[in-house]
Predict the 3D structure of the following.
Amino acid sequence: MATALTDRTRLHLETDTIHTIPVLTMAPDRAERCPAIFFIPGFGGSKEDGLRLGYQLAQAGFFFISFDAWLHGERYDRRRDHADDPAYGGIYPPESGLDTGVLFFRVIQQCLVDVQTLIDHYAADPRIDLHHSGVTGLSMGGYASFLIFADIPTVQAAVPMIGIPQFSRRWRDLLDECAFSNPTWAVALQRLDRQVREHTALIAAIDPAERLQQASPRALLMMNCDFDADQPKLYAVSFYRELRAHYAANQAKLRLNIYPAGHAVTPEMERDAVDWFRRQLLGRP
């Protein structure tokens, strides 16, 4: 479907299902190939959550690809909202949120598989330049953006929003927070020592932190917020310190922006993301 949105630009908005993955795409109606930008929504969200950002990216000359993550949107399954139910494999104290935490990382792991599937599908599409692609997303999608950027070399630029790059550290901190804040939970975690170790190993296996140190000169803009209690900025700040040495020869390719907001993506963040992709993938301000 083509829709005239301005006097200057005509955009195509399409929905499709590709190998069981529901996708929404938006792109300028023109002959030349456009760099692809993949978008991953937050936990509980859907591909439509990227529409505002997608509109801006398509106007800027990108082929925007948003998709429903596993258990989300058109792929919804009750497991997403009832991870603590023993019928769905829940083992931790329900109020601790740890079962949802494990599921959270499993969904992120599947996002990497899904993006690779979409890259393979679009490889022959004459509208799309996949060798200069980018990835972005919010919260869970920010985590997934770090992982995809670390593991898929053709992704040349990333803007993880309100996510955390250190999966193992975050999981260990969540375990400690639960144990230190509630004696009953501490006892339960001791009884579940084997399962805790298995889940810790699963999360460590996909943790992108070490591989991100080898990402330079590919472009990484991390976005976090001052008042975000859900995904605290401290993780991004400490990791940025580590990454700067690895980007010493390509300092313009690494940035950390912190915004005066809570766990939310603001219009300013979206504008900065578009500007980053425009400079890094199209070579223009």
